[in-house]
Amino acid sequence: EEWKDRGAAVGVRRELDKSGRPVVRQIKKGVRDFAFGRVLGEGSYSTVYLATDRQTLKEYAIKVLEKRHIIKEKKIKYVNIEKNTLNRLTEHPGIVRLYYTFQDETSLYYVLDLCNGGELLGVLKRTGTFDVECTRYYGAQILDAIEYMHSRGVIHRDLKPENVLLDDQMHVKITDFGTAKLLPDPRTNPDANSEGTDGLDADNRNGDDGRAASFVGTAEYVSPELLTHKNACKASDLWAFGCIIYQLLAGRPPFKAGSEYLTFQKIVNLEYEFPQGFPPAARDLVERCLVLDPARRLTIEHIKNHEFFNGQPFGRPLWRSKAPRLRPYVPP
Ligand code: ATP
After folding, report:
1. Residue 61: CB within 6 Å of ligand 1?
2. Which end of the chain has the smaller Cβ count within 10 Å, N or C?
3. pTM score, two decimals?
4. Does the CB atom of residue 175 touch ligand 1 within 6 A?
């Protein structure tokens, strides 16, 4: 039972000091400091509650994980990966932020950004498809968040519309880092091979990194290199990005079949089609992301400069801009 942060009800808060450097403050926040409200959702190993900080009245989402259940299901490793990853990714508006962690006898608590807008998948299902403006906007926010996580040495490995949450401004917040791969942090280890394309993914070789389990319902976004070489790299997230762009405009993911096995077959054979009237610039972008060889896929910089994103701001202005009204795509 190696719970990394022992000590009951002691919280850790990450903030920036006066010169903008991240600092970790030990503050005593515990279960009693929050008023728990309704259940926002349930995962296989967790329940997420709406909660209010009694002192500041700020609202959060608190993810509660039952220790006994996690031990029984042998998920301690993934719980720690999620926490360690989130602790590395605290400075970007497009990533769900972890504010405090604490524990009591029975449970672990993660205090997270509240995402009132739900999952991007749910929003997409309501409109069926997104028009080009919405796809460009949400695509840009997802890409900006991917760029940040890659710059911090994190490969998500499970990007899909269920893992893209939306806050009350309908801005993107990426979540679910339980199957992320942590590369040496480029900030503390600038000489490290931060590309992660070395073909040696110890986690995956062990075959127990949770990937197989998370295939359930996720097969559609898995990159071909993961299927053929059991190896994920930064470019694997951009394969998933290409799948998401396709899905926003088409209303369904590019690779979908009756079974997981058949979906994998389609992926490794690059077997997919565009619906009639799919916007040509988006088609070109998707075709350059859905490339079997990860080394030949567009890089983030290339994607930002692609004509599909022509005129689209990235960085700060993107996160200050208002979300467009959701409209379905109407082919010409
Ligand atoms: P599984 O573990 O089975 O893959 P999951 O990853 O979705 O499921 P959780 O991350 O615990 O599990 O999330 C459970 C549900 O709670 C999600 O489906 C989502 O709807 C909701 N949820 C998660 N995080 C937040 C958040 N920060 N704000 C609002 N709702 C959230």
Report:
1. yes
2. C
3. 0.88
4. yes
